[in-house]
Structure prediction request, 355 residues.
Amino acid sequence: MLLLNLKLIIFIVFLSLKLIDGLNDERKLNEYLFSSNSSNRYNPNIRPIVKSDSQLIVDARLGIKRLFEMDESNHRVVLFAVLFKKWNDDFLTWKPADFGGIEYTYVDYSKIWNPNLKLVSNFNDKSPSDKSKDELYGNFPVKLFHNGTVQFSPAVHLTSECLINYGKFPLDIQACSFEFQMPYTGEQIKLRINVYYTDEENRKYEHMWDIDDFKVTTINEKDQKTSAIVQFLFRRKYKNFLYILPSYFVYVLTLLMFMLPQESNQRIIIGSTCLIISCLLSYFMSNTVPNHEISAWPLLGKLFLFNIVLLTFSILFSAFVINISRGNHTKNVPSWLRKVGLFFFPILIFFSSSL
Prediction:
């Protein structure tokens, strides 16, 4: 029993020494990389490349998790995504054998140089994408490998302006662009970026919009700042049936109205019903679509307005025809009406009267 306890104590002491030794290796590595007493002290403000005339390559991947918000009133779109960035830092390398076999470590984002890839946003509402890098990523860990490879993949909310065009509402497709930019020219840094979906099942938005497609344009010109523009196409899918199905019913009833006999009272009843439905649909759509000077009037709204005007004149003429068909026809036609119908009206429609 005593021998067993002794072995247990020796094992615990051995693990403690290993743990302390591992912590010492981490501390030594951190001092080796960021020591302020070293003659080659690391400067996070200098581009981490040995030859200053060389081009540093930054690989970025934008992993879309889902569409977080589509604010149609304020013309704003918010995406929830993971922005993965990778580059090589020539000044942060070490030999794993000198530090207990450590091949990678984690350091604070603010301690090292970073490409400062930011989203250019037109909003000042202090959303997560508008905050400074120190405020947003100050304590975020960065994975650093012994060969100088740096990997950084924070989760972000990307906010950008999206001018909504309601011309084809409710079957509209909106194009929204996100512009990323770095304070370096294409001669200093080459940006390579691609977009993917972290989970295909979450590609579709739960209620109102689908992410239909995207396109990436990268600018790496020598005399321009390195930037990338990612354009997304969003397709509306919510509440379409609330507009489309009633529209079909209204136009079917409108056709039925013209198929009835002219002297039938049902023409006025059906026409009035279609007119009320069209007015309600137009009012409902006007409350759904925000009033904005940039947006075009929806094509469906123009169709409702045309139908309202058509039904109004149809009801008036139907009432006029019914009144005539049920009136007294023994009286002679007034002379002024006879002249208008037989002489002036044929001239207007380019007919000649032989009477």
Observations:
- The longest helix spans residues 2-34.
